[in-house]
Write a structure and sequence with these properties.
This protein has about 675 residues and is of the alpha/beta class. Helix content is about 35%, strand content about 15%.
């Protein structure tokens, strides 16, 4: 990218951000909106769902407004909701800012899919995420369905009065004719009662809310209750007949001897049904790793939770931007270009050029990066800045260790992770014993634990074979869902015959018994051309010691596999062991000597882009792997390293212990087939 191209791109980003957002006109860039004409003759961009309503084209202006309020939250918020202005003065309409529009899009996606709304929001500070959430819940209560009660749990008790004040202000200013359902003509039953002679609006004097208990009030005309409690007073969070629950700053909820954040959340949400138009939203800034909020966010990110995850970065918040002085923008852009490969900071209060360039590639404007540089100077540690103003959901969770892998190099690996795998299982005649290795085949299944990016049967060249092509590595986990995952990774070394990179072509990940896993791995290795099978034996050997089993049961199990499958990895023996006739030990043993060796080698593989990764979950494991203060390696609390260890073991053996693959003719082959299959044929 040239300096000129960078400045043009920055102008495009700035124009998009600074463009006036008009919720009445609608967002023309929203793919879920269509251009249509309102009854007053103006064109606007309406939700597509609204235009499919019966009689849409024949609505009068009032009925059009009510129908649009039903389908279009940003329009309803801007025309019916008033909030306190931060600058003082009279209340102002609630017009969504850029970050709030991202949040609403996530909530609306679930609502329009007809699914329960379940979201866990990780965010930077000061953009109105809590306010937007509470007003979105009010939209469901005020417009969509009567009688839906809501519960809001703030972190501090002092915040409850502010929340109640916001609701009271909204209800006080809410249009009277929107407080009742419209009849088939689109008119509210309050339309006539609310007007005096000449059609002028009468002053509303009826009581709109009533106090119904500590921290609770009821909106009379819509028959719903709002309760506001705090995590500081757990009894105020006890749920009841609630359909909408918002828990704020969950990462800061205190854990005590008598109550945990999990207990409070369970009490608050236990009554919420798993139905459309119900909602549970957990939101917070990050507060370190290993806590309840971190664990729940990571589970949602992996797709293992009822919740979906959403992250809002600091550069998506309009106020975090700093304008340049005359001529400074071009100089700043030039410095970013020149220093984009610099990975070492020149000061503890500055980020390296590679980090700032990464922000640019993520979509931040030059003005936003300029603000970041100036704000970063306040902090002597990047972790302090990241906890307040995270750039992604990895760095948001600050931890004490040092990352092992360079995040910029890891992101390079991600570029090869877009391909969707086929799913299924490798099946033989039986599930265990030698017969499991007979008639092995790939059986497709949408719920299969085996992901296949390249099928061995489809990679066979006519009359040609590659020796030492495939390597299968096994990291043994546990049986239960609470245990570590067991992983079987298949590495294709074929490209190495032509100076290419080995690549991950298949992977099994799940929970099962040790013996079933070993036979499953052998079947996968059999399917992939009798691949070298490497089983990490630590779990087997440790398990034997912990159970005080006489003898080494891992030795028995692996030798049993060896009798049926010949190409099983064995550790190298020392000259003394060979001379003394020591038995061969099968499997790779990870210990204080071998682990630093294989991790250091994996660091090099990632740094120099020496292999092709296919699984994004492994990318996440690389990003959350740390060297702890005591010098040991491990995954961040709440994360896993099972995929990473198969790469560490497999790539070390792949590059250091196996001969290069060689092409060999196995049967007569036609000239056309040979020419088509051989990359070097064109040179002859």
């Amino acid at each position: 990218m040239t300096l000129k191209e960078m400045l043009i791109e920055n102008r495009r980003r700035r124009d998009a951000i600074l463009a006036e957002y008009d919720p009445v006109k609608g967002d023309p860039d929203d793919p879920l909106r269509v251009k249509s004409q309102a009854p007053d003759g103006r064109f606007c961009y309406l939700p597509e769902s609204m235009t499919r309503e019966p009689g849409f084209r024949s609505l009068d202006e009032k009925s059009f407004h009510r129908l649009r309020c039903l389908h279009d939250f940003p329009y309803w918020a801007a025309t019916c909701v008033y909030i306190k202005s931060k600058k003082g003065g009279p209340d102002i309409p609630f017009v969504l800012n850029r970050a709030q529009r991202k949040l609403v899009a996530a909530l609306e996606k679930m609502r329009l899919e007809g699914k329960p709304i379940r979201l866990i929001l990780l965010k930077a500070r000061q953009w109105g995420g809590s306010t937007c959430t509470q007003i979105f819940m009010s939209w469901i209560q005020m417009v969509h369905r009567e009688g839906l009660n809501s519960l809001i749990v703030a972190q501090q008790h002092s915040a409850t009065s502010e929340i109640r004040d916001m609701f009271m202000r909204m209800i006080e200013n809410y249009p009277q004719d929107m407080l009742r359902e419209a009849d088939s003509s689109g008119k509210s039953e309050n339309d006539e009662a609310g007007r005096g002679k000449g059609g002028k609006r009468k002053r509303e004097t009826s009581k709109r809310t009533e106090h119904v208990g500590p921290g609770s009030f009821r909106v009379i005309s819509r028959n719903f209750k709002v309760k506001v409690g705090s995590a500081e007073k757990p009894d105020s969070c006890r749920g009841g007949d609630y359909s909408l629950v918002h828990c704020s700053e969950v990462a800061l909820w205190r854990r005590t001897k008598l109550r945990t954040p999990e207990d409070m959340l369970r009490a608050a949400t236990s009554g919420v049904l798993l139905e459309p138009l119900t909602m549970i939203l957990l939101e917070s800034t990050a507060n370190g790793t290993g806590n309840f909020f971190h664990t729940e966010y990571e589970a949602a990110k992996r797709g293992e939770s009822q919740f979906r995850n959403l992250f809002v970065a600091w550069y998506e918040i309009d106020q975090y931007s700093k304008e340049f002085e005359e001529g400074e923008e071009e100089r700043f852009a030039l410095s970013l270009l020149q220093e984009r490969v610099c990975e070492q900071p020149v000061s503890s209060r500055r980020q390296p050029g590679a980090y700032l360039w990464w922000l640019w590639e993520k979509g931040a404007t030059l003005q936003a990066i300029n603000w970041y540089v100036k704000e970063r100077a306040k902090y002597s540690d990047h972790g302090q800045m990241a906890s307040e103003y995270p750039s992604d959901d990895i760095e948001a969770f600050v931890h004490s260790g040092a990352r092992v892998f360079d995040r910029y190099k890891v992101e390079e690996l991600r570029k090869d992770c877009g391909r969707l795998p086929e799913r299924g299982e490798i099946a033989g005649k039986k599930e265990t014993d030698p017969e499991s290795l007979e008639d092995v085949r790939f059986v497709k299944s949408a719920n299969g634990a085996l992901a296949v990016w390249k099928d061995y049967k489809k990679e066979i060249e006519p009359g040609i074979t590659l020796t030492h092509r495939y390597l299968v590595v096994v990291d043994i986990g546990g049986r239960s869902m609470a245990a570590d995952w067991s992983v079987i990774a298949v590495i294709d070394r074929g490209p190495m015959a032509f100076a290419g990179r080995p690549e991950i072509v298949a992977q099994w990940r799940g929970h099962t018994d040790f013996d079933l896993l070993a036979w499953k791995a052998a079947a996968i290795a059999k399917y992939y051309g009798d691949a070298l099978l490497v089983i990490e034996s630590n779990t087997l050997e440790t398990r034997d010691r912990e159970r005080m089993v006489e003898g080494d049961q891992s030795y028995f199990l692996l030798n049993q596999i060896r009798k049926a499958y010949q190409n099983l990895y064995a550790r190298r023996q020392s000259p003394d062991e060979i001379r003394m006739g020591a038995p061969v030990k099968y499997g790779f043993h990870t210990n204080v000597a071998t682990k630093p060796l294989i991790i250091s080698h994996l660091v090099r593989c990632v740094r120099d882009n020496l292999y092709v990764e296919r699984d994004e979950q492994c990318i996440d494991e690389l990003l959350t792997y740390e060297q702890r203060p005591n010098g040991s390696y491990g995954a961040l609390s709440g994360h896993h390293d099972d995929l990473l260890m198969t790469r560490a073991i497999g790539l070390y053996i792949c590059f250091n212990e196996m001969p290069l693959p060689e092409r060999k003719m196995t049967a007569p082959v036609s000239y056309a087939d040979w020419q088509r299959s051989s990359p070097s044929a064109a040179f002859f």
